[in-house]
């Protein structure tokens, strides 16, 4: 009898514990997970799709310093990087026909000087070059289908060594070069002498414009199982909105869908969300 009582007591206790566990699990189910997210406002406007073109910098003009006859440099009055004015004496060359004075033919900067006093020099190659570095030329080569993006005197933004410059189109080639590409030239002002010959220039050229569209950060777009969507914050919940992409750039994307101007679009934390997830906006951008 006593054993039966103990067994019944144990069974009752197990039942009570099981009921408690079920209640605890039920309570936990009732607690919603709150996901921290970052948002940015959707905007309405025109999205300009830009094309990046890569080229090299060069002096806008160069003038070779040539010799009439070969000989020995007896006096050298300049060095690389030195500024000269027209008719400045550059060097005196001792030749078989007597001394030859070499003068600057224009204002500019001495470059490509590879000789020194006492050296023998030839008249088959320039002694040096006088270059204009105040205005620099940007050289690009483009496919025929890209030429319609340009007109002479158009101005675009060029990025050189992380600095922006206004680049004016000065020449558009009408014939391709040996590679089948067309040469295009632009010029920039090099007032601070920061641009050197041979540097890489990246010019941003508008290629397409999507007018009067909803624009969201590209980071907000989620592609999953063939579905494209974003999350919009409404009443502290993330609401899933299916969208279609009209045009996309690295930072911004033009979309079509039920997204209003000024909507708070999730840009960080969206990969862990589901429709109507409860969220906490920890950072709200414009």
From TrEMBL:
<dbReference type="InterPro" id="IPR006143">
    <property type="entry name" value="RND_pump_MFP"/>
</dbReference>
<feature type="domain" description="Lipoyl-binding">
    <location>
        <begin position="55"/>
        <end position="131"/>
    </location>
</feature>
<dbReference type="InterPro" id="IPR011053">
    <property type="entry name" value="Single_hybrid_motif"/>
</dbReference>
<dbReference type="InterPro" id="IPR000089">
    <property type="entry name" value="Biotin_lipoyl"/>
</dbReference>
<comment type="similarity">
    <text>Belongs to the membrane fusion protein (MFP) (TC 8.A.1) family.</text>
</comment>
<feature type="signal peptide">
    <location>
        <begin position="1"/>
        <end position="18"/>
    </location>
</feature>
<protein>
    <submittedName>
        <fullName>Multidrug efflux pump subunit AcrA (Membrane-fusion protein)</fullName>
    </submittedName>
</protein>
<keyword id="KW-0732">Signal</keyword>
<dbReference type="Pfam" id="PF25989">
    <property type="entry name" value="YknX_C"/>
</dbReference>
<dbReference type="InterPro" id="IPR058637">
    <property type="entry name" value="YknX-like_C"/>
</dbReference>
<dbReference type="Pfam" id="PF00364">
    <property type="entry name" value="Biotin_lipoyl"/>
</dbReference>
């Amino acid at each position: 009898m006593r054993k039966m009582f103990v067994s019944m007591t144990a069974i009752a206790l197990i039942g009570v514990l099981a009921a408690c566990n079920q209640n605890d699990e039920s309570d936990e189910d009732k607690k919603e997970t709150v996901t921290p997210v970052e948002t940015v406002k959707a905007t309405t406007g025109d999205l300009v799709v830009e094309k990046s073109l890569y080229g090299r910098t060069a002096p806008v003009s160069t003038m070779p310093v040539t010799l009439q006859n070969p000989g020995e440099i007896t006096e050298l009055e300049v060095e690389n990087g030195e500024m000269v004015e027209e008719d400045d004496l550059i060097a005196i060359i001792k030749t078989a026909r007597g001394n030859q004075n070499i003068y600057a033919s224009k204002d500019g900067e001495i470059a490509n000087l590879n000789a020194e006093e006492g050296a023998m020099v030839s008249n088959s190659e320039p002694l040096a070059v006088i270059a204009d570095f105040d205005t620099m030329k940007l050289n690009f080569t483009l496919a025929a289908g890209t030429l319609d993006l340009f007109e002479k005197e158009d101005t675009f933004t060029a990025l050189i060594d992380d600095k922006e410059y206004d680049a004016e189109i000065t020449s558009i080639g009408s014939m391709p070069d040996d590679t089948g590409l067309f040469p295009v030239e632009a010029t920039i002002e090099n007032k601070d002498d920061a641009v050197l010959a041979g540097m890489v220039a990246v010019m941003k050229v508008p290629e397409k414009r999507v007018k009067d569209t909803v624009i969201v950060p590209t980071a907000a777009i989620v592609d999953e199982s063939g579905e494209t969507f974003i999350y919009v914050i409404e009443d502290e919940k993330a609401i899933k909105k299916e969208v279609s992409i009209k045009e996309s750039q690295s930072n911004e994307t033009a979309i079509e869908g039920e997204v209003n101007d000024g909507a708070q679009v999730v840009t960080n934390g969206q990969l862990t969300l589901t429709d109507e997830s409860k969220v906490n906006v920890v950072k709200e951008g414009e």
